[in-house]
Every structure is written in C-alpha cells, then in structure tokens.
Design goal:
3-stranded antiparallel beta sheet; globular
C-alpha cells in the first residue's frame, strides 16, 4: 500500500462522520502551555476530540487553516491565527 493511500485511509477513519460541537480560539494560557505565540482556532468534536492547526509537523506554533469550496460570495477563506 502506498504511503498516500495509508495516510488517507487513516485520517478518513479518524475524521469522517465526526460532528463539530464547538469552535473557539485557543486561550492565551493554552498557547503559553504549548510554548506558542500564535493562537489557532480549535475545532472540537462531539466525541471530545479536537483538531488544532499547527504551523508545521513539529508543532512549533499555532497555524492557520484554509477553507475552499464555500458557497455564496466568498468561495474560500483563511482561518487565521490571533496573538
């Protein structure tokens, strides 16, 4: 199995079907605990798991997100970090 296919299957099983229950920006205290300067949007799911964007694979700081394929006036949007 290719690496792409293995990763696709892993994350599809992990994410497909989840229900978002809450979205909020990381608090200053949480960012400090992570050693981060940028505070990303945290997407919380109904099962208690969370998706927290990072700037890189090593988790060196909070990261932005990008949403494409939106309907209406805005077809795309960046979910920015705050400090």
């Amino acid at each position: 199995m290719s690496k792409d296919k293995a990763h696709n299957e892993k994350f599809q099983k992990l994410l497909i079907g989840k229900t978002i229950s809450r979205c909020s920006y990381m608090t200053g205290k949480e960012a400090e605990d992570f050693g981060w300067y940028k505070r990303p949007l945290i997407i919380e799911f109904s099962d208690g798991s969370m998706l927290i964007p990072q700037m890189d694979d090593e988790g060196n700081d909070g990261g932005a997100g990008y949403i494409a394929g939106l309907k209406g006036d805005e077809k795309e949007m960046t979910i920015y970090t705050i400090s």
